[in-house]
Amino acid sequence: MKEASSEPSDFAKWEVQLRKGSLGLAALASLWEGKLYGLELLRKLESVAGLTVPEGTIYPLLSRLKVAGFVQSEWVEADAGHPRKYYELTASGRSYVREIANTWLEFTAGLNRLLAPLEEKGHAKRKAS
Amino acid sequence: MPNAKPPEQLEAWLKQVRRHLRGLPPAEISEIVQELRSHVLDRVAGDLDHAGIAEALESLGDPREVARVNLSMHVAARAAAGNSPFATARAIARLGALSMRGLWTLLVSLAGYGFAAAWLLTAIVKPFAPDRVGLWSLPTSDGDLSLSLGRHAAGFAAHDVLGWWVVPIGLVVGLGSAYLTYLYDRYALRRIAGRQPRFERSPS
Questions:
Q1: Cβ-Cβ contacts under 8 Å for B10 (sequence gap 6 or more)
Q2: Hey, where are the domains in chain B?
Q3: A52: closest CA among A19, A100, A11?
Q4: Would you call A67 an interface residue with chain B, using a CB distance cutoff of 8 Å?
């Protein structure tokens, strides 16, 4: 019983760390195909990756990536009637995101092989129930 | 209605953000506020009714918290990007008021620089007041000994533990601990600047 009660909090901590740690990669990867403004980026994270970021915190993250030299921004007059701040990857941002994406893909490919039997068991269990 | 004036509700919210961003350069404050305004206007897609704006503002969160997160990141990231010890110290002092992590960093930093200053001052003043300044061993009322660094009143029974050695030792320990504190501050700034917001899996 004791073990079971400590599991959810350990899992929650692990999941929070995983999500926090991968947000920088997610934001940079969203910009791979072209420049986006903040709300577009949030919507892309949500629609493509199924990730919801608190809206008030995306701009500090983008500013940090800008200070780090991974993205640059420019104000563009939009048809909407107000200017929008667009973000795009710099050359160093492109090379950085490619590097961490490769590391991520290699790491998850290995881990996925290891986790494959668990996934099949999970499917079987779900089908049974 | 693309050129409609943003409603007062939005401007009042932005005014609060602006107020809590005090201390940042005006150009940065304007940039942050303008971007938040643009975000809300995009989110409501030109439909400037009260409910739509209210929902968009609610999604952004409390203006004070939005300002605090922006301020922490800007202060820490700007200082972390340079190497100036004064900019670092200024940023640490500012962050002390913005978050628990910032406050902890400020306290550790004050303790570190205080320790460094005590050794350096003792080393510097020793040649001018050799009988009054040093590392003193003092007998206490319960028979134990306590160590005291710095100036000590005349006529008090105390033993000068290091003598003239306090000058080189004080300089090395003082400069060393000031440098270590500076390195700690830089590490803390990078940690604060690099903090990631939480994000959740969207409900499918």
A1: B37, B40, B53, B57
A2: 1-60, 83-204
A3: A19
A4: yes
Q: How far is B91 from chain A (nearest CA, A)?
A: 15
Measured in angstroms, the CA of A82 and the nearest CA of chain B are apart by 7
Mean pLDDT for B1-27 is 81
B40, two tokens? 């809300």
CA atoms of A124 and B112, how far apart (whole Å): 58
Tell me if B80 sits within 8 A of B186, measured CB to CB.
yes
CA distances from A34 to A31, A65, A73, A90 (A): 5, 16, 12, 11
Six token digits for residue B139: 């007998």
**What residues 77-96 of chain A have any CB closer than 8 A to a CB of chain B?**
79-85
More confident site: B145 or B192: B192
pLDDT digits (tens, 9 = 90+) for B91-144: 898 888 888 888 999 999 999 999 999 999 888 988 888 777 888 777 766 656
CB B132, CB B152: distance < 8 Å: yes
Task: Please choose, from the candidates A14, A16, A47, A17, the residue with its C-alpha nearest in 3D space to the C-alpha of residue A30.
Answer: A47
- In chain B, the largest separation of any two C-alpha atoms, in whole Å, equals 85
H or E segment and range at residue A51:
strand A51-52
Tally the C-alpha atoms within 13 A of residue B77's C-alpha that lie toward its C-beta.
22
Q: A interface mutation test: which of B60, B62, B199 has the most A CBs within 10 A? A: B199
Where does residue A28 rank: exposed (0-12), middle (13-18), buried (19+ CB within 10 A)? buried
Cut 0.80: pTM above it: no
- Residues B126, B132 contacting (CB under 8 angstroms): no
Q: What is the ipTM of this complex?
A: 0.77
Determine contact: A9 vs chain B, CB below 8 A: no
3-state helix/strand/coil string of B140-186: CCCCCEEEEEEECCCCCCCEECCHHHHHHHHHHHHHHHHHHHHHHHH
How far A66 CA lies from chain B's nearest CA (Å)? 10
3-state secondary structure of A78: coil
